[in-house]
């Protein structure tokens, strides 16, 4: 796989300024070995999962700093109650995003929130030169077939996104992000609200370690068709 910076030399001016998020994703997908020794999708996911757990991956406000929830005990019950008002409210607050990320990790579905966060950061790109390398990194990490952190998208959305990667816009991932948002809102969010982790925050106690559970079945857009309008930012 060719490095986009080699194909577009003008992008080299920003190479040294890549943020930890995109450095982490790039390191997991660049320079594939010979097919005979190419790791399977499961190995890729395991490798990237270990990378995502490193402290340096979670640097920067643009990531919402998901991960360690040791400070969540400082969340007041009143604040936690507000997270139950809407999914938007939960994701709009750092502590809420932290708590929801930790919950998704117990269900082995954290790729959904990581993709959503990556899209939020992507849309904040200030120049066209930033879009191409970021778009390729997001696509290769979360969307293309057998991607290390592949999210569940319908064929039409995946195809439309794929066709726009060559000349990405700030809106390139809007449809895919909206799809993943709805899946989290309709599937994971209700379970989060009934989880021991959330109940402990409502009671003002330190969150207990949530037991790991098997990944729930993957829902598709058709499961929730007509339930809510598309999410827009």
UniProtKB/TrEMBL annotation:
Keywords: Signal transduction inhibitor. It comes from the Eukaryota. Residues 86-202 form the RGS domain. GO terms for biological process: negative regulation of signal transduction. This is RGS18 protein.
């Amino acid at each position: 796989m060719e490095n986009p910076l080699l194909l577009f030399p003008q992008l080299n001016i920003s190479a040294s300024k890549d943020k930890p998020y995109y450095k982490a994703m790039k390191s997991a997908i660049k320079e594939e070995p010979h097919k005979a020794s190419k790791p399977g999708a499961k190995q890729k996911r395991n490798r990237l999962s270990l990378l995502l757990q490193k402290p340096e991956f979670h640097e920067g406000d643009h990531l919402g700093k998901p991960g360690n929830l040791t400070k969540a005990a400082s969340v007041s019950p009143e604040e936690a109650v507000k997270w139950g008002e809407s999914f938007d409210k939960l994701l709009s607050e750092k502590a809420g995003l932290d708590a929801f990320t930790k919950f998704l990790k117990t269900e082995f579905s954290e790729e959904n929130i990581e993709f959503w966060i990556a899209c939020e950061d992507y849309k904040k790109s200030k120049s066209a030169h930033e879009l191409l390398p970021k778009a390729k990194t997001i696509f290769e990490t979360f969307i293309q077939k057998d991607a290390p952190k592949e999210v569940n998208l319908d064929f039409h959305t995946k195809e439309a996104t794929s066709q726009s990667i060559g000349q990405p816009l700030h809106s390139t991932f809007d449809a895919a992000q909206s799809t993943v948002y709805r899946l989290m809102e309709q599937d994971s969010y209700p379970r989060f609200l009934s989880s021991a982790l959330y109940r402990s925050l409502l009671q003002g106690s330190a969150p207990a370690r949530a037991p790991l559970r098997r990944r729930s079945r993957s829902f598709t857009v058709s499961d929730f068709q007509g339930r809510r309008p598309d999410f827009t930012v």
